[in-house]
Design goal:
The complex is a heterodimer of chains A (423) and B (254). Chain A has 423 residues and is an alpha/beta fold. Chain A is built from 15 helices and 8 strands. Chain A has one domain: Spore Coat Polysaccharide Biosynthesis Protein SpsA, Chain A (Alpha-Beta Complex). The longest helix of chain A is centred in the C-terminal third of the chain and has 42 residues. The two termini of chain A are 40 Å apart. Chain B has 254 residues and is of the alpha+beta class. Chain B has 2 domains: 104 residues; 89 residues, Glutaredoxin (3-Layer(aba) Sandwich), CATH 3.40.30. Chain B is elongated. The N and C termini of chain B lie far apart (100 Å). Classes of the chains: A alpha/beta (423), B alpha+beta (254). Chains A and B meet through helix 1, helix 11 and helix 13 of A and helix 1, helix 2 and helix 4 of B.
Chain lengths: 423, 254
C-alpha cells in the first residue's frame, strides 16, 4: 500500500506540476500579445444583435438582468431582445411584462410558454432571432453597458469567418459570504486561464451568460443540444469538433449571481460536472487527437485527467489527513483529554533533517505557480491584489477543493450509473 | 463539415517538451536533495548510536563499582545516568521513527537502527532491574510490546507516554516493536520469557497485561507497585477533597 500509494501520489504531483508549468509557459509565450491587447468600443460595423433572456422562476433577478440589457450602450433599433418565460411558476412573467410596459421597450419581445427547458428555449429564440449575432443572458446575470461593443469590436478585429463564439469575462456579482468570495476568486482565475486557453484555441466552454455566437454558424451546426445538462459546454465542444474558433474577449465583463449556500452550490456544481463528464465522453474521439492541435492534446487530456487527479486527491486526503486525525482524537480520548500533562516539558524542536525535501520542493513549485496565477488573475481582471485581505480564505480553499472533489465523485458515480438528473 | 479548414490548429510541441523538462528538473532537484538528506540522517543516527554506546559503558562501570564495593553512595549518580540514557534513547527513537515515516521505502539501514534501538532498550531494562534491587529504588518499569500494524497500539502508547510525563523518573517504559522479531532473536527471547502472544501487551514488574489497559486501571497497577508517588497521592487527595466537599454539602443542606 505504502509503495503503490506513494507512486500514485508522485504521479499526481508530477501531472499537476506539469500542467501548471505548461500554463505558465503559455503565459510567457504570449506575454507581449497579452500586454498589447486592448479593447475597442467602436466596432467596424453596427449589426443587428439578438439577445435572449431565458428565465425560469427568476422573479428576484429578472428585473436587474433586463435593466442591464436596457442600459446596453448600443442603438436600440439594432437590438432584438427576446425574453422567454419558460413556464415559471412565480411572478417572473408578470415582472417582465410590467418592466417592458413601464419603460416602453419596443425592441423587447416577451414569449411565455410551458416549461421546455433552457436549450429548447434557446433554439426557439434562435429561430426567431433577426440578428447577425446571437447572445444569451441568463436571468441571474448582468451585463456591463460596454460589453456588447467590446465583443463586437473583437469579432471584427479578429476578421476570421471561422470565429464562431466570443466568450465574455465572467465575474461573480457582489460576493457577500465566504462561499461567494471564494467563487469570486475562482472566477477571476477562470478568466485568466480562459484567456490563456483562448490563445491556444482551446476554450471548451462558452459561459451561459453573454457568450456571443455568429447566428448563421450556430444554425448551421444545429443549434443547442437539449439532451445535455450543460449546453454551454456542449456547444463549445461541438464548435471545436467542427474546427470553428472560440475566443475570449478579455475585458468584456459579465456579472453572475453565484450560489451563496451549500445546497444550491452543490446542485450547480453537480450539474456542471455531470455535464462536463458527459461532454468529454460524447467527444471522446477528440481526446489526444492530433487533428485538433493543442485542444485535443492538452485540453482534452487535461479535462479527463482532472477527474483522476480529483479522485486521487480526495482519496488521499481522507487516508492521510482524516484517518490519522480520528486515530489521534481516540488516543487523546483515552487519557480523558488531559493535554496539559501530555505536553508537560514539551519542546518543539525544528529539525531540518525531518523535512521531506523532495515533497517540499515539489509543493513549493506548485505553490509558486498557484501564487503566480492568483496574482496574474487579479491583475488580468483589473482587481486589486490584497494578499492580507485574502489570507483568511486560504484555509477555506482547502475545504473548497475537498468539497468540489466530493461533488465530482458523486457526479462521476451518477454518470457511471447512467442516472439522469434534472436541474 | 468536419473537413473544414483547420489551419489554426497548432501543436505547441516546444512548450510540451519544455514543461516536461522543467517538471523533471524540479523533481530531480527534489530527489537529489532527498538523497543527500538521507545520508545526513543516517550519519546522525550513527552518531546517536555511538553516544548511546558511551553512556552504556559509563553505566556498566558505575554498576560494577556499586556491586564490587557494595557502596550505595553512588546510587543517585547511577540513577541519574540511567534516566538520562533512557531519555536520550527515547528521544533518538522518535527522531528515527519520524525519519522513517518520511521515507517511502524502508531501508536496511533503518532495520539495523531499529534493532539496535530495541537491544539498547533491553539492556537498559536489565540494568534498571538490577539497579532497583541494589539501590532499593522506588520506581516501576514497564515493558511495552507493540506492533505497527495494530490499530489500538497507539492508544496504549499515548496512555503510557501520558504516565511517563506524569510520573517522570519514577516510571520507566521500554517499548519493544514485535515487527522486528524475525530479524532480532532477542525479541523472540523476551516474548517466550513472558509468553507474549498478543499486542499490545505490557509487563509491569513481571505481571502480564494483555490488550489496551485503560488510564485508570493502569494508574492503579502502577501505584500498587510504588511506595509513594505524587501522581498517586494527587488522586487520593482529590478523592479526599471530594469527600470533604460532599460532607460540607450534606452538612449545609441539613
Amino acid at each position: 500500500m505504502n509503495l503503490i500509494g506513494n507512486i500514485i501520489l508522485w504521479v499526481v504531483y508530477f501531472i499537476s506540476l506539469y500542467f501548471s508549468i505548461f500554463l505558465v509557459l503559455v503565459y510567457f509565450d504570449n506575454r507581449d500579445k497579452i500586454k498589447s491587447e486592448s479593447s475597442s468600443l467602436i466596432p467596424k460595423k453596427i449589426p443587428v444583435v439578438s439577445i435572449l433572456i431565458p428565465a425560469y422562476n427568476e422573479e428576484k433577478t429578472i428585473i436587474g438582468t433586463m435593466e442591464s440589457v436596457m442600459n446596453i450602450n448600443y442603438p436600440k433599433n439594432k437590438l432584438d431582445v427576446i425574453v422567454i418565460n419558460d413556464g415559471s411558476s412565480d411572478g417572473t412573467g408578470i415582472q417582465a411584462e410590467k418592466f417592458i410596459e413601464e419603460h416602453n421597450l419596443s425592441h423587447f419581445k416577451l414569449i411565455s410558454h410551458d416549461n421546455i427547458g433552457k436549450a429548447n428555449s434557446m433554439n426557439k429564440a434562435l429561430k426567431l432571432a433577426k440578428g447577425e449575432f446571437f447572445t444569451c443572458l441568463d436571468a441571474d446575470s448582468f451585463v456591463e453597458p460596454d460589453t456588447l461593443r467590446k465583443m463586437l469590436s473583437f469579432f471584427y478585429n479578429q476578421d476570421d469567418p471561422q470565429l464562431a463564439i466570443v466568450t465574455p469575462a465572467m465575474k461573480v456579482f457582489k460576493p457577500k459570504n465566504v462561499l461567494q468570495k471564494i467563487q469570486w476568486i475562482e472566477y477571476l482565475v477562470m478568466i485568466f486561464v480562459g484567456r490563456l486557453s483562448s490563445h491556444l484555441d482551446s476554450l471548451y466552454v462558452a459561459p451561459g451568460p453573454f457568450s456571443m455566437y455568429r447566428t448563421d454558424i450556430i444554425r448551421k451546426v444545429g443549434g443547442f443540444d437539449n439532451s445535455t445538462l450543460t449546453e454551454d459546454q456542449e456547444i463549445a465542444y461541438r464548435m471545436q469538433k467542427y474546427n470553428y474558433r472560440i475566443k475570449q474577449c478579455f475585458d468584456a465583463y459579465v456579472y453572475t449571481v453565484s450560489p451563496h449556500e451549500l445546497v444550491p452550490f452543490y446542485k450547480q456544481r453537480r450539474r456542471w460536472y455531470l455535464g462536463s463528464i458527459s461532454c468529454a465522453y460524447k467527444y471522446k474521439n477528440m481526446i489526444a487527437n492530433k487533428k485538433y492541435g493543442d485542444f485535443g492534446i492538452i485540453q482534452m487530456i487535461k479535462n479527463v485527467i482532472g477527474y483522476f487527479l480529483a479522485l486521487v486527491g480526495i482519496g488521499f486526503a481522507g487516508y492521510f489527513l482524516l484517518y490519522p486525525f480520528v486515530l489521534k482524537i481516540k488516543n487523546i480520548w483515552m487519557i480523558n483529554f488531559d493535554f496539559l500533562t501530555l505536553f508537560k516539558d514539551y519542546t518543539l524542536l525544528f529539525d531540518p533533517l525531518f523535512l521531506d525535501i523532495p515533497k517540499v520542493i515539489v509543493f513549493g513549485a506548485l505553490f509558486l505557480t498557484s501564487a503566480f496565477f492568483f496574482y496574474k488573475a487579479h491583475q488580468n481582471a483589473k482587481e486589486n491584489v490584497n494578499a492580507i485581505g485574502y489570507l483568511p480564505i486560504v484555509p477555506y480553499f482547502a475545504f473548497y477543493y475537498l468539497l468540489k472533489g466530493m461533488i465530482l465523485i458523486v457526479s462521476l458515480y451518477e454518470f457511471g450509473r447512467g442516472k439522469k438528473i434534472k436541474w | 463539415m468536419e473537413k473544414q479548414s483547420s489551419r489554426f490548429r497548432e501543436i505547441s510541441k516546444g512548450k510540451y517538451i519544455m514543461a516536461g523538462v522543467l517538471t523533471f528538473l524540479i523533481f530531480s532537484l527534489g530527489l537529489t536533495m532527498g538523497i543527500i538528506l538521507e545520508e545526513m540522517r543516517y550519519n546522525e543516527a550513527q552518531e546517536i548510536n555511538e553516544e548511546q554506546d558511551v553512556s552504556y559503558l559509563s553505566l556498566q562501570l558505575q554498576y560494577l563499582m556499586l556491586t564490587s564495593f557494595e557502596d550505595q553512595s553512588n546510587c543517585p549518580v547511577l540513577l541519574t545516568t540511567l534516566q538520562d540514557s533512557i531519555d536520550e534513547l527515547s528521544g533518538s527513537l522518535s527522531k528515527i521513527i519520524d525519519y522513517e515515516k518520511e521515507n517511502s521505502i524502508s531501508s536496511d539501514d533503518y532495520l539495523l537502527i531499529s534493532r539496535r534501538y530495541t537491544l539498547d532498550n533491553l539492556r537498559y531494562w536489565l540494568m534498571a532491574e538490577k539497579a532497583k534491587e541494589s539501590c532499593q529504588l522506588d520506581m516501576v518499569s514497564i515493558l511495552y510490546f507493540y506492533s505497527d500494524d495494530c490499530p489500538s497500539c497507539p492508544n496504549q502508547g499515548t496512555i503510557l507516554s501520558y504516565f511517563k510525563k506524569l510520573m517522570g523518573d519514577q516510571l520507566l517504559v521500554f517499548p519493544i516493536n514485535l515487527d522486528l522479531r524475525e530479524d532480532e532473536a532477542m525479541i523472540e527471547v523476551m516474548m517466550s520469557l513472558y509468553n507474549v502472544t498478543k499486542f499490545p501487551t505490557i509487563i509491569v514488574e513481571g505481571d502480564k497485561y494483555e490488550g489496551v489497559i485503560k488510564k485508570n486501571d493502569l494508574q492503579e497497577i502502577i501505584c500498587s507497585n510504588l511506595e509513594s508517588s505524587d501522581a498517586c497521592e494527587i488522586q487520593l487527595e482529590d478523592l479526599e477533597q471530594l469527600n470533604v466537599s460532599e460532607q460540607n454539602e450534606s452538612e449545609s443542606s441539613s
